[in-house]
Structure formats: C-alpha cells, structure tokens
Amino acid sequence: MGNLLELFLGILTALGGSVEVGQLTFSLNGGAKFGYSLLWVVALGTVGIIVYGEMSGRIAAVAKKPVFGLMRERHGLAVGMLALTSATVVNLMTCSAEIGAIAMLLKLATSTPYRLAIIAAIILIAASMWFLSFKAIERVFGLMGLFMLVFIYAAVVLKPDWHQVAAGFAPNVPAAASHSDQMLYAYYVVAMLSAILLPYEVYFYSSGGIEDKWKPSDLGINRVVSISGFTLGSVLGAALIITGVEVFGPRQMEVDLTGTAALPAVLALGKWGLVLAMLGMFAAYAGAAIETAFSSAYNIAQFFGWPWGKFERPRKAALFTASWLVTLIAAGAIVESGIDPISIVQYSIIFSVVILPLTYLPTLLAARDREIMGRYTNGVVADVFGAVFLILISVAAIAAIPLLTLTHGGQA
Q1: What average pLDDT does the segment 311-319 reach?
Q2: In a domain, 11, yes or no
Q3: Which of 189, 195, 165 is nearest to 176 (CA)?
Q4: Which of 18, 64, 79, 99 is the most interior residue, by most CB within 10 Å?
Q5: Residue 260 resides in a domain
Q6: If you average pLDDT over residues 376-390, what whole number do you get?
Q7: Domain housing 95
Q8: At 198, is the pLDDT very low, low, confident or very high (cuts 50, 70, 90)?
C-alpha cells in the first residue's frame, strides 16, 4: 500500500510541477503565432525527458550518487567546473524569472508594489525550503500545481478543430510568409524543446531520488512515475498551445506572465477560472524557483564534497543551505534591479539549451557504465533513444545563439 501511495503521489507531483514560466510563456505565444504546428515539439521533448529522467532516477537508486557528483568523479575537474559554472548561471537566471513571475502574480492579486512583492516571494520560498521536508515540498507545490489543469479544461471547452490538433503532432514546418518567420519558428522549436528538457530537472530528479532514499527495488516506481508523470504533464503543455491558438491567435495578443496568461481559464470558467489559473501558476512558478535553488545548491555541494540534502540537519549541511539561500537572494536582486522577467525567461531558456549536452552526455555515459550500474545498465532501447536525443539537443545547442540573434530575442 505504501508503494502504491508513493506511485500515485509521484505521478500527481510530476504532473502538477511540470510547467514553469518558460514553458507556459513559449507554449501560449507559440500557439498564438504558429497554430498547432508546434505540438510535435511537445511530443518529442516528452520522449526525451522521460528517457533521461528515468536514467537519472535509476542512477540515483542504484549508484546512490547523484548525476552531478558522478560527473565530477568520472570526468575530472575541468569538465566538472565547466558544467558547474554553466549550470549555476542558468539556474540563477531561471530562478530569477520564476521569482519575478511570482511577484507579478502577487502584485496582480493583492496590489502589493512589485519590488515589495519580490521580497515577499523570496521570504515565502525560503521559508518553505527551510521548514518543510523534501517530501512535503514535493507534495505541497506539486499537488497545488494541479490547479493548472484548468487550462486542459479550457482547451476542451474552447472546441478546437481536433483534426488540426492531431495533425500538429506530425513534424512539420508551417508555410511561412518570409525567411524571418521561418527563423522565428525555428527559434520557438529550440526554445520549447529546451523548456521541456531543462538541465535542472535532471539534477533535481537525481538528487531527489537520493533524498527519498530510493533503492534498486524502487526502479519500477521510478519508471512508471517518469513515463506517466511527464506524459500527463505534456498533455498540459499541449493544452497551453491549444488555448494559445484559440484565444490569443485571433486577438493577436502577446502573452505576459500573469494576467493575460489566465485569459483562457477566465473564458472557460469566469472568475473561478482566474482564481484557479493564478493558484496553479503560483504553485508552478514557486515549485520551479525551489527546484532551481536546490539544484544550484546540490551541484555546488556535490562538486566540492560538502554534506548536502534536506535529510541533513541545516547545521551539518550549512554550506549547502547557504548555497540555496544565496541563490534566492541573488535571483531576487536581479529582478529588483529592474530587469524584465520576460527578458530573463527568453535568455534563461536559450542558454539552458546551450548547456544541455553537458548534462545529458554524462547522464547517458553513467547509465550505460557497467562499473557504476552493474546489471541495471541501459538496455538497447534506452541507449538508442539516449543517443538520438543527445544528437538532437547538440544540434539545438549549436543553433540556439544564432537563432536568438537572428530573431532579436524572438521578436522577428
């Protein structure tokens, strides 16, 4: 019964915490700009995150070591430091975007001045990370994120052309009026793929498996949670694209992080739709801020060999605790400086895809290393899919910066 409960809650948590500010923004705007033609990217990215999420959880359960710790141990100081520096910068940018988005929600809901709302957001997140256990954090913010299901309801109520929706899952390039439109479409493909495969997800999932004391007997739960949770989460991602097509496309509206993003839910359920959407977005943004702050602290502590984890007392894991506190404070300082959170979202997503190979290659190598994994190494299917997605993300990483430049940050 305990395993069944763990399985059920794990699936709900993965679903509820699946969409962060970058994916929400790009999905809604992508649907508004390109119709259903980006749905295949959601399907593709889902397969990738399932493959690598399962690998990272399996590594944690079998090797009792997180992915980043193995990277430092197996690939040396130079590679480890490059990965640490890159991941820390991207985690900081992503955390800043999430905190800025939370502050915008608080401002909209309570009329609190934006800069004061930023401080309130940091205090709320820090208190949650300090006082709640790891499992409680997973459950509270993951399950609260289920309020985002209102967007799936809205997608159905809006009655899209389901034949066109189905056609969007086949890889395609929409007929473009100009070369700049084609570049913008390619930019959205890369950005949305990055938003689904964000590096911190692998680091956090791997470290979280150790926080939850996973062992080889939990590999079945890991597999089912990876497949079911990420798949259900991608249904939400697809629903966001559909609502973007149906609501924002005809109105030629640009989606921001708070008020306009909730419009599909408002059209479907009125004021209650607004309440549910804002609660869901708050939980999703807060969950992502917590995950990125923890991920940064995990990486730093594991690289330097410090005690880490919520299972350790704060005094024993003092440097780990200081790392996530500093990350939150630094992230808050970035948005307090006046930088637009939407701009931070754009750059955090693109720079995330640039460093994806530094995350996914060590994960693949560890998962297929018999010395580390014993009889739990990758099978043929995991190896093939892992290699294919490593090639895809490497191509996306090469294309990301040129596309960012050519489209003027997605404004072409």
Answers
A1: 85
A2: no
A3: 189
A4: 99
A5: yes
A6: 94
A7: 18-406
A8: confident
Residue 5, in any domain of the structure = no
Structure tokens at 270: 């009125």
Q: Which residue is associated with the tokens 């294919």? A: 388
Placement of tokens 């389901």 in the chain: 162
Can you tell me the distance from the alpha carbon of 384 to that of 402, in angstroms, rounded to the nearest whole number? Answer: 29
CA distance 412 to 182: 10
pLDDT of residue 10: 58
pLDDT mean over 82-91: 89
Using alpha carbons, list the distances in angstroms from residue 96 to 28, 273, 294, 332, 346.
Answer: 21, 27, 14, 6, 12
Are residues 297 and 327 in contact, defined by beta-carbon separation less than 8 angstroms? yes
pLDDT of 16 > 50? The answer is no
Give the angle 334-340-345 at the CA atoms, nearest 5°: 85
**DSSP per-residue letters across 354-375:** HHHHHHHHHHHHHHT-HHHHGG
Q: What is the DSSP letter of 254?
A: P
Task: Give 97-149 pLDDT, tens digit per residue.
Answer: 999 999 999 998 898 999 999 999 999 999 999 998 888 887 788 788 889 89
pTM, two decimals, is 0.90
Q: How is residue 379 written in tokens? A: 């099978």
User: Residue 116 corresponds to which tokens in the numbers above?
Assistant: 């004061």
Residue 194 within a domain: yes
Cα torsion 149, 126, 89, 56: sign = negative
- Provide the number of structural domains found in the chain: 1
CATH number at residue 304: 1.20.1740.10
Cβ atoms of 228 and 143 within 8 Å: the answer is: no
pLDDT of amino acid 176: 62
**pLDDT of 240 strictly over 60:** yes
Which residue do the tokens 């989606």 mark? 255
Give the integer Cα–Cα distance in Å for 70 and 303.
9
Contact present, 129 and 331 (Cβ < 8 Å): no
**Which amino acid would we find at residue 48?**
G
Using alpha carbons, select from 18, 378, 384, 3 the residue that is nearest to residue 222.
3
DSSP 147: G
Provide the phi-psi class of 35: left if phi over 0, else alpha when psi is between -120 and 50, else beta. left
